[in-house]
Amino acid sequence: MSPLHPVCRVIEPDLLSVAAGEAGSTATARVQAHVADCGPCREELAQYRALEGMMQTLRRAPRGDDDATLARAQLASRLADLRSRMVSFGIFPSPLGRILIGRSEQGVALVQYLPASGGLPDHVRRLLGEDAVEDRAATEALQAELTEYLEGRRARLDWPLDLRRMRSGFQRRVLEATAALPYGAVTSYAGIAARIGSPAAVRPVAQALRWNPLPIVIPCHRVIGSSGALTGYAGRHVDLKQRLLAVEGVRAVPARDDFRIDRTAMYTMMTGDQEYCVPTCGSLPSQPLSKLTLFGTRERAEAAGFAPCTVCRPDLHPLPA
Amino acid sequence: MQPGEGFTLAGSRGLMGRAMAEDAFEAVVAAHHAEIRRYLLRVTARASDADDLSQETFLRAFRAYRGLAPDANVRAWLFAIATNVGRNHFRAKGRRRRAYEAAALEMAADAPDRADGRLLAGETWDRMERVIGALPTKQRLAFIMRKMHELDYTEIGASLACSEESARAHVFQALRKVRRGLDGHLPVETESRS
Predict the structure, then answer these.
(1) CB–CB contact B50 A71 (8 Å)
(2) N or C, which terminus of chain A has less Cβ within 10 Å?
(3) In the predicted model, is pLDDT for residue A273 greater than 70?
């Protein structure tokens, strides 16, 4: 049992230190002087030294289950997975307001409009995931290109994309079809539904675009309502859609709470054709927007690789500017 | 672009740039994983728990690694994370009791190996492990960090979010309890060496 004498009690912590080999010379001398005269503490010290000896044995002894190989291999694969998912993001001012750009090891994972002030909205936090880290430097080059794009000085964002934030295979198909829309072109939600072979899925297409994790980069602003109304963008920011389209040469005029594109003022082609026309060419005026791709300018149609129609000759009879 | 071709286009200009930090973390894993797992094995007494918790420790460490000061003591930092992971583990209801029971069984089975020529009765090792396993969590963690992994009291204090003095007090409390629990079983030499 522990020594009970008050002197023994006071010296006991030093005694533990001496047994553990942690004591300084003063404490060691004090303990040595004490145990020379105190039998119970001498015994106590011997006991603690024996205990330290056992622990030293335990420290060195191998254990049967001390094999980290499996855990190490599993860790390596989980780390690789975590690394590839981890998003670095930066928040930047842009001509369209505050924008967040996030990228993973695989590519650009996220572009999100942010409110003018305050923290990150919940849906943005969810998209970022818990492992996201703010790292402006990692996204600065992207931001510079995005700004050039928004100012009309760049028509392509050739970024590798990380599409693992897609909600479904359907959304992925919708966004792939949308990404294939050339710069300066528009079509309708029904047009995208038709392109992915699900012509009836107009509302699901609109939903899939509503949750586009990469607006601007995947140009959902080029997809409009069948009536020509811009219809919706980034929550209630259809004005941003109008401005993005204006940069690309697509004019939309205010119409009630929305903006509207005038089909009769757009170069027009049947989706899948290789030639663009004036909107009055052949049967085009009677075609639903879902079958058409519209361009605001000839330059955009030709930059996308299309030739002027040899019948209506939009190159010789351009639309009024 | 054709569907199925994916979106990844040519020219990934400067998008990848973290390779160096990642190599550094690989080195951290290589240097410390085995010891951290051994620590968690001693803490939980279950190989499967030690596997899981050591993985969790290093995943957390990876997330925090870029914020770590260049001159930080990485080993002590990892022990602190592992200690937190271990404490969270024990907070889960019921686990602790099961861990003790498992500890007693596994330690008993291992005892002859670990006697390491000192010819101690397996019963003594068994008893020692049970006494350590029955310590309050903080004391047990402090004790294992100090006696099995030789961390200093400052490092133990940092792991347990307490002062160096408290860390020492935890270890000493543990020592007293282990010593009392082994009363009459310790291989005491007949003559005191001091």
Answers:
(1) yes
(2) C
(3) yes
